[in-house]
Write a structure and sequence with these properties.
homodimer; Molybdenum Cofactor Biosythetic Enzyme, Chain A; Alpha-Beta Plaits; Maf protein; hydrolase (chains A, B); hydrolase activity (chains A, B)
C-alpha cells in the first residue's frame, strides 16, 4: 500500500519550523505495514494543493494531508478539497457539538471557531476529539485522501485513534519486519565491505540499510510479510555471527539511552568530567527523562584552573603532558569519580577546533578515559576537523567506551 | 527564483530520522532571495529520483538534492543522475586528492571510499571539504540541479561556502532586505497583538515574520529590492520605538553568541551551575569556537549531594526550601562564581519534567540566578510541560538574564 504524506504550510517553506509530523507519521505507517514512498511540503496555495493531489493520485493509494485547517483566512485546505472533488461546504451540527465539547473546558465559542463546523458534503467526516478542525476522509477511484490538522498533538491523536485503524481495516497491508543493530568500531564504508557477501546473498525482498551517526553505525535489516519472520531470524543470526562484539545493541536507541538503561539495570551512578565536549555528554544524558536515577552531575573543566581546583588534576601532569593527554584524562576521570561520588565516570579532553591544533596534537585529537569502579580505560581518538561533529563524536565515543566496560 | 528541495533516503520515509535539513536550507535560501516552493523526501529509488526531477523541472528554476551519496550499495543518487542526464561516471583525481585530505586525519582509504572519486562526466564537480562525497552541479535548460551530501554538518558547510554563493552569482535574485530583532518578554501572540497596527500599515511588499524560540521571539521585517532600503530603515525606526527595551539585540544571533560577544568585549569570564538544564548552557556556550576565551567551566549538580559538596549550597537551604527555590539558585550561582573563579555565573534549578512536579512546584517551575561581580538577580519562571523545550527555554532565559545585567 503506497502512501504519501503532504504537509501544507508556508511556515515550513521559509524554514521557520522543522516538519516533525512527517517522520512521526512515516514511522507509524511503516510499522502498520504501509509503505511511505514520498513526503512533500507545499504552501497554502490552492493550485499547488490540487496539482499535488493530481500527481500523487497516479502513484500512491493513500494520501495523508496535514495542515491548512485553521480558522484564519490563510488556511484554505478544506475549500480547496471541495473544489478538487467537486463538492461544497455544508454546516454539520454533529461537528459543532464536538467543537463545543472540545473548547468548553477552556474558552468560549467565537464565530471563526463555529465556522470550523462547515465540512465538505461528499466525504466521511471524522470528529477531532482534541481540536476544533474536523478530519475529512475522501474515497475516490479505490484511493483514499485524508485531511487532518497539522498541530502535532492533534495529528498524533487522530492518526493513532481514528485514521490508522481505518486504513488498516480498509487495506489490510503486509507487516513490515525489521531488526536494528547499533554497531561500533566501523566506519560506514568499512562495515559495508565487511558485510558485502552477506548483503549480496540476501533473499529477494530483504534489505539492509546503513545509517551512520558520529562514532556509530545503525544497521537495519528489513523485509515485508509476517510469513518471512523465520527467514529474518535466520539472517539476524548470520549478522550476529559476522559482527560479534561490534554489536553494541540490538535496539533502535541512541547511545545516551542505551547507557542510561544499562546503568539503571545495574544500579550504578554516573558523573562526567568534560573538557572538549563542554557539557554535551551531561546534556545528552539529562535529555532522557528519569536520568536523575543514575546521573549525579558533571564538572565541565574548560580551563586548566578548573581541572586543578575542582577535579584535582596534578599541575605537574598538565605542565608535563599538556591538557590533552592520557595522564590528564585519567586524572579527570578519577577526580570526577571521587568528587561526584559515583560508580562510573567519563572524562574527555581534546581539541575540538577550529583553532588550538598543533603538529603533534592536531584538531580532532581527543583522549577519553572511562572508569567503572576501579577499572579504568583511557583511549586516544583522532577525530575530524569540525567542531560540531567532534563534540558529538567524542560524546558518543565516551558513552560507548563506558558501555563496553559495563559489559 | 523558484527552488525545490529534495531529500533522498529511505531512513526519512520509514520515519527513522526527522528531516531537519530542509528547514535549514529553506531558511538560508529564503534569506538569500530564493523562493522555496516545495520540499520533497523520496526513497533511494532510481525511477522515483528521475520522475521527481522531471516533475520539478516543469515548476522550478533550482533543484537542490541531498542524500544518497554514501559509499554503500543503497546509495544510488550519483548513478541515477548520470542516467538522467545521459552521462557516465569517470574517475576524478582531484576528488581523490580531496578525499585523502579529508580522511587523512582519522582513517585510512579503503576501496569503497576511493570509489567516491567517481563523478559524472558532464557536470561541475565541487569538492566537499568536510566529507568524502563530492558535490555535483548540473546546468540544463537554464535550470540548475545540485546534488550534495545529506549529513547535516556537511550539507550546511557546502551550502554556505559553495552552493549559496554560486547560486547567487548565477541568478542574482532580487536582494532580500531584512532586519532581525531578538525580542524578549513577549509571547508570540502578545507580540503580534502589540504590533497589530504597525503590521496592518506596512506598505505593499513588506512582511513581518515571527519566529518564536523558547524564551525569545525573533522578529523579521523584510522586503525585496535594493531600492526599498530607505523605506525599510524608516519602518525599523518605528519598530524600535514600539519595542524599546524589549529588543535584546538587532542581530540574527542566538543567545549563546550574543552572550559570548558581550563577555569577550568586556573581558569577563563565565561559569555555570546547572541543575535542570543538565549542562546544556555549557554545551551551547562551548559550541561557539573561541569560547575558551571567556568560558571557564561548569558544575552540573544534578543531585543534591553535588550541590552541597561541590557548590557549597547549605544543606539547610535544601531542607527548608527544596532544591527548586530562590535560596538554592542564589547559593548555586555564588558557589559557581567562587569555585570556578569567574566574573559572571548562571545557575539553574527547576523541574524539567515529565515527572517530579508537585501542586506547589509543577513541572516547568524554574529558578534562575545570575551574578555579575557582586550584582545578583534571581528570578522564577513558569515554563511548560515538555522536558526538551523546558531545558532549551531555561538555557536561553539564563543567558538572556545575564545579558540584561551586563547592559
Amino acid at each position: 500500500m503506497k502512501t504519501a504524506i503532504v504537509t501544507i504550510g508556508d511556515e515550513i517553506l521559509i524554514g521557520q519550523i522543522v516538519d516533525t509530523n512527517s517522520a512521526w507519521m512515516a514511522h507509524k505507517l511503516t510499522l502498520a505495514g504501509f509503505e511511505v514512498t514520498e513526503t512533500q511540503s507545499i504552501g497554502d496555495n490552492a493550485k499547488q494543493i490540487k496539482d499535488t493531489i493530481d500527481c500523487l493520485s497516479g502513484r500512491v493509494d493513500v494520501i495523508l494531508m496535514t495542515g491548512g485547517l485553521g480558522p484564519t483566512k490563510d488556511d484554505i485546505t478544506k475549500k480547496t478539497l471541495c473544489e478538487y472533488f467537486g463538492t461544497e461546504l455544508a454546516f454539520d451540527d454533529s461537528v459543532l457539538e464536538n467543537i463545543k465539547n472540545v473548547i468548553s473546558s477552556f474558552t468560549s465559542l467565537n464565530e471563526l471557531t463555529r465556522n470550523q463546523a462547515y465540512v465538505p458534503k461528499d466525504c466521511v467526516v471524522i470528529q477531532n476529539k482534541v481540536g476544533t478542525a474536523p478530519i475529512t476522509w475522501f474515497d475516490y477511484n479505490g484511493k483514499v485522501l485524508v485531511s487532518m490538522p497539522g498541530v502535532p498533538y492533534e495529528m498524533r491523536y487522530v492518526m493513532e485513534n481514528e485514521i490508522l485503524p481505518r486504513l488498516q481495516a480498509k487495506f489490510d497491508p503486509e507487516a513490515y519486519l525489521k531488526r536494528v543493530f547499533i554497531v561500533r568500531g566501523y566506519t560506514e564504508s568499512a562495515l559495508a565491505m565487511h558485510l558485502e557477501d552477506f548483503e549480496n546473498n540476501l533473499p529477494e525482498g530483504f534489505g539492509l540499510a546503513y545509517l551512520p551517526s558520529p562514532g556509530l553505525v545503525k544497521l537495519r535489516l528489513f523485509v515485508r510479510g509476517e510469513h518471512r519472520l523465520d527467514e529474518l531470524d535466520e539472517h539476524v543470526k548470520k549478522l550476529q555471527g559476522l559482527l560479534g562484539e561490534a554489536i553494541l545493541a540490538e535496539k533502535d536507541l541512541p547511545a545516551e539511552k542505551l547507557l542510561g538503561q544499562r546503568l539503571f539495570e545495574k544500579g550504578l551512578t554516573l558523573g562526567t568530567a568534560e573538557s572538549c565536549t563542554g557539557g554535551n555528554i551531561a546534556h545528552m544524558i539529562t535529555s532522557i527523562p528519569g536520568s536523575s536515577n543514575y546521573f549525579k552531575g558533571s564538572v565541565v573543566s574548560y580551563a586548566n584552573e578548573e581541572k586543578i581546583n575542582i577535579l584535582h588534576v596534578a599541575k605537574e601532569s598538565l605542565d608535563k603532558f599538556g591538557a590533552v593527554s592520557e595522564a590528564v584524562a585519567i586524572e579527570m576521570a578519577q577526580g570526577a569519580q571521587r568528587i561526584l561520588n559515583v560508580d562510573c565516570s567519563i572524562a574527555t579532553t581534546g581539541i575540538a577546533g577550529p583553532a588550538g591544533g598543533t603538529e603533534e596534537k592536531p584538531v580532532g585529537t581527543v583522549w577519553i578515559c572511562t572508569r567503572y569502579k576501579d577499572k579504568c580505560v583511557a583511549q586516544k581518538y583522532q577525530l575530524g576537523r569540525y567542531r560540531e561533529s567532534n563534540i558529538i563524536r567524542a560524546s558518543n565515543l565516551g558513552m560507548v567506551q563506558l558501555l563496553d566496560m559495563l559489559g
